[in-house]
Design a protein that fits this description.
It is a single chain. With 224 residues, the protein is α/β, with parallel strands linked by helices. It has one domain: TIM Barrel (Alpha-Beta Barrel), CATH 3.20.20. Helix content is 31%, strand content 19%. The protein contains seven helices and eleven strands. The strands form four sheets. Strands 1, 2, 3, 7 and 8 form a five-stranded parallel β-sheet that branches. The chain has a two-stranded parallel ribbon with strand order 4-6. It has a two-stranded parallel sheet with strand order 5-11. Strand 9 and strand 10 form a beta hairpin. The chain is globular, with a radius of gyration of 17 Å. It binds zinc ion (ZN). Zinc ion binds next to strand 1.
Length: 224
């Protein structure tokens, strides 16, 4: 046991799926170890054959399901028509995700490679998220598994070792990176890390529709 990491927490999040052949394997690994996670679902993936069944399986196995935009290609704060983007990227998929809603509806914005800047939200998007009582889940560990399918484990462990509670963004996408998930979980188990299902307040800029602090660094202020 490492004294440095005693009391450390990790919350696992899997973005951009579901992906048949990948999400299934991730769910198997999590089930074997009793580890909770949140799956942030993309609409175009949900509608692929087998997609919805995978999200149902994740939900039935105790994982949380969140909204991760319809097409994962349009930043809300960079849209030419912010209102139209809210409808097409958030509202349309929200209706399709209703069966997975729990007491706290979760949203994670598309951030184009993980860059948290003023393209993340528009004022129109914030109005929608407030009106529909979403909780927005950001992150503090982005080990870039899609770029480095082997090396992400070391990057993530570096984050885990330097902060008390890491919200790690991984991707149940066909990059090969999830083959390393068992090794990552072995390392976390060796460190006696607590695997959490919730999130630190510092990663939740909006809770149940209420902005917790200023969002100007994440929002295009000129948007109507
Ligand atoms: Zn994403």
């Amino acid at each position: 046991m490492s004294a440095e990491t005693a009391g450390t927490k990790v919350t696992l999040t899997f973005d951009n799926g579901p992906t048949p052949g990948v999400t299934d394997a991730v769910l198997d690994v999590l089930a074997e170890r009793g580890v909770p996670a949140t799956f942030f679902v993309v609409g175009t993936q949900l509608r692929k054959p087998g997609g919805r069944e995978l999200v149902r399986r994740a939900r039935s196995e105790g994982h949380r399901i969140g909204h991760h935009t319809n097409t994962h290609s349009l930043q809300l704060g960079a849209a030419a028509d912010p209102e139209a983007a809210v409808q097409s990227e958030i509202a349309d998929l929200a209706a399709e995700l209703e069966e997975f809603d729990d007491a706290e509806k979760l949203f994670r914005p598309y951030a184009a490679g993980g860059v948290l800047d003023q393209r993340v939200f528009s004022r129109a998007a914030l109005r929608y998220l407030e009106a529909h009582a979403y909780t927005c889940v950001l992150w503090n560990s982005l080990p870039r598994d899609w770029e480095d399918p082997l090396g992400w484990v070391a990057a993530a462990l570096g984050d885990v070792d330097r902060q008390p509670w890491s919200v790690v963004v991984l991707h149940d996408a066909p990059t090969g990176a999830m083959a390393q998930l068992p090794r990552f979980l072995d390392e976390l188990a060796d460190r006696r890390v607590e695997m959490a299902a919730d999130y630190p307040a510092s990663c939740l800029p909006i809770r149940a529709g209420h902005a917790v602090g200023p969002l100007s660094h994440l929002t295009r202020e000129t948007a109507p």
